[in-house]
Amino acid sequence: MNLAQPLNFQAGKFLLFFLSFLFISCNSTNQDNEEVEDDESQKSYTSMVNPFIGTAPLTDPEFIGYTPPEGWRVWAGLVFPGSSLPNAMVQLSPITEYGTGAGYEYEDTEILGFTHTNKGHWNLCNIPILPVSGNAKAPFKSSFSHNTESASPGYYEVKLDDYGIKVRLTSTLRSGFHQYTYENETDRKILFDLAKANHGVSNWEITQEDDYSISGFQHVGGDKIHFYAESNVNIKKLDVQKMGEKDGYAILSLEDGKNPVSLKIGLSYVNAENAAQNLKEEIGKADFEEIKKRANNTWEDLLKTIEVTGGNEKQNEMFYSSFYRSFLWPALRSDVNGEFKDVKGEIQKKDFNYYTNPSFWDTYRNKLVLLSIVSPEVTTDIIKTLIDKGEKTGFIPTFFHGDHAAPFIAGTYLRGNSSFDVEKAYELLLNNAYKEGGPRPHIKEYIEKGYISDPDVKNPEVETKAKAGVSKTLEYAYDDYSVAQLAKALGDEEKYEDLIKRSENYKNVFDTSTNFMRGRLENGDWISPFDTEYPYYEYMYREANAWQVSFFAPHNMPELVKLYGGVDKFEEKLDSLFTVPWNQNHIARNVASFIGQYSHGNQPAHEAPFSYYFVDKPEKSQEIIDEILEDFYGVGEDGLALSGMDDAGEMSAWYVFSAMGLYPLSPADPEYLVTVPIFEEVKWNLPKGKTLTIDGANSGRNLRQIMVNDEELKGYFISHDLFKNGGEVEVITE
Description:
Layout: H1 11-28, H2 34-37, H3 61-64, E1 83-84, E2 91-95, E3 110-111, E4 113-115, E5 129-133, E6 142-143, E7 150-152, E8 155-160, E9 165-171, E10 175-182, E11 188-192, E12 201-210, E13 213-220, E14 223-231, E15 235-241, E16 249-254, E17 261-268, H4 272-282, H5 288-303, E18 306-309, H6 313-325, E19 339-341, E20 347-349, H7 360-363, H8 367-374, H9 376-393, H10 405-414, H11 422-434, H12 443-449, H13 469-489, H14 493-502, E21 510-511, E22 516-517, E23 536-539, E24 541-544, H15 546-549, H16 557-563, H17 567-577, E25 594-595, E26 598-599, H18 618-631, E27 633-635, E28 641-642, H19 650-660, E29 662-663, E30 671-674, E31 681-685, E32 691-695, E33 703-708, E34 711-712, E35 717-719, H20 721-725, E36 727-733
Parallel strand pairs: 32-36
Antiparallel strand pairs: 1-2, 2-4, 3-6, 5-11, 7-8, 8-9, 9-10, 10-17, 11-16, 12-13, 13-14, 14-17, 15-16, 18-31, 19-20, 21-22, 23-24, 25-26, 27-28, 29-30, 30-35, 31-32, 33-34, 33-36
Helix pairs in contact: 6-19, 8-9, 10-13, 11-13, 13-14
């Protein structure tokens, strides 16, 4: 790769893509969007979404960067293709294997059931249901073909070949709607496989309420998921085998008949009565087509927030598929009556909707910023949820690694959303930043030393577990910066000064003798031996190697440049990140898909492609960004894989922002780095009839000038004020 030249798109590659796109579109996407597609005068955004993107595996060792060990499935999306509404409680989707991320793997040939919750993180996949017929026996499953499978936002369809049943699924916020057409008019049955989920089920129960309805629950971990279901045909018998046991199940036997069977099911995390109310209020007597139409229209309303023009078919499909995927998590937990179970397990009712925790690592980087712009009401309720949890535990919760509620809350407030108790949120974030026992492990050491050490491990391996001290230090420093911005906005000068000083702690793990972020022992010595290319899961680095974390200081990039010895040395090091080849002997399941040492298959280095801006070489950034957009999304034999795990929408949101020419490099700050969009025009439809237009009509890919409302922009960042007031950004290239 020649970093001095702009990206060239080869005609041969495009032709191959176009042919594969036609095949995929004919077999996998939404063939049932008649309500929108019949009107050719109206652009259908849902028709450009392919929910199967991200479900297929990565198989090419050259692309992956190594040959996966036998039996490995390299993480390449881990998303579900089924029906959901934005940030809904219900995600109704097929499952082909339990314990595998989202439960659905495109290469599988058998469906085990249709589950009602999902995320893509090896949990959930609750309340599995499978229509069966005849003398179906355990283990219950059916073969299927992608030729009879299709999906669109709010809809999924497949034929179960072994049972001769056509399955159609749609959903509301808290309820699912199944429609089964049996080829055999007799022996029509429905399996409730309640002993199964992606996590171990501790208990389950099912009861027939009357001739047409059943209720029950599934207890998994700390959650008890209640359901209430109604059939449009008579339930002749409920046969329960080993109620509550791990190898038990229940089968509904239905009356014979020709008409399709409808099964409407409401969920609740409170009780079965609320599940029934959720079902009544959201579906009631509406038929399948009406609920499907409502789901489609909901997604249309969200997707048309951003209108793009001038892209090719792959770009349009990938943009709106990524946009769609960015709005599936966090998930609603409040019922229609407002009740929810809080972090202590108590039933509460507040003046906001209760949600699951966001997957802060790594969605804070971009997805939560996108959410805050497009869905401010949902964002407000999520923050109120976090505050409610914080008031009962003493800390704002986090997820997996870092303390990234800090940039999410600070960034939301600084973008103008003050519809939550910011003082209370700030108080709790200070607890996170200063007190032990919260979401920042080793916080005492971090405060005292300015870094987090790792132990002296002899011959550490990829899976070595330790403190991930370098990654924690870097991320805590950025979280400190984020809380500092909130302190400044609220007039707390003392805390601002302390936290902004702590935000420079990234310097304490920078080794000037190697020009890498490097682990330190408890006594302050650098960890040795030191292999800059070796990836670790939790030793020194979190799911990364030294190359992949060494450019992370999004709040202070000019100082990071100085740390490397100035512009020239920083640029030289950055060039090496994208050119030093990956060692194919270094194998980590979640670190894959490389440009040099840069891995787009995992998130820790996702800011690095933008770093050339800080040496005034935006054209070099753009070449990398363009290569990622073109070659690392919609990949593989069927064009249905991502270069890595979507991580609840982060991978998708990276595409959305980068494709339209804006990126929230520091999500706590109300500003966006301007890059070159891949579209001729991007139009944001803002509240009160205002619009923000990004004009990228020039054919060149090298950024030369940015005009904002007909005035030249000094620098590369635009203010969030444009999202409030509207305006025009013209990206001039050559």
